[in-house]
Amino acid sequence: MTEDPEARSRIMRAIKSRDTQPELIVRRLAYSMGYRYRLHRKDLPGKPDLAFPGRRKVIFVHGCFWHCHDCGRGARLPATNKAYWKEKLERNKARDLAALKALTALGWKVKVLWECELADSNRVEGLLRTFLG
User: Fold this and answer.
1) 43-57 pLDDT per residue, tens
2) Of 20, 22, 57, 65, whose CA is between 20 and 30 Å from 73?
3) What domains does the chain contain, in order, with CATH numbers?
4) Closest C-alpha to 81, from 89, 71, 73
């Protein structure tokens, strides 16, 4: 199904970069486990979704499509305007890698949680305990 350009533009404007549903799932779970965090620290490279300053650890919650995960949702490319989307998604990947390297160089440990991983809350809880514990 293809939308007219106005409808497509409206859909794209509605996509948020913070407080997304996957991010809220991780935040609620981390909080319920007793972990306290700071959100979107602007003083850290990449503005991590959750920062645990006392532990010097950060978590990014990535959408599979926007950050090119190797799952079914992340591995696909839109049918129209492929050159634009390929370039845009490659820039996202490069920016993610640069942020990860910069944070590591500053002594922070980084965990990336993918949208597709969040379906199993027990698994996510285990990942959080291992990473933050």
Assistant:
1) 999 999 999 999 999
2) 57
3) 5-132 (3.40.960.10)
4) 89
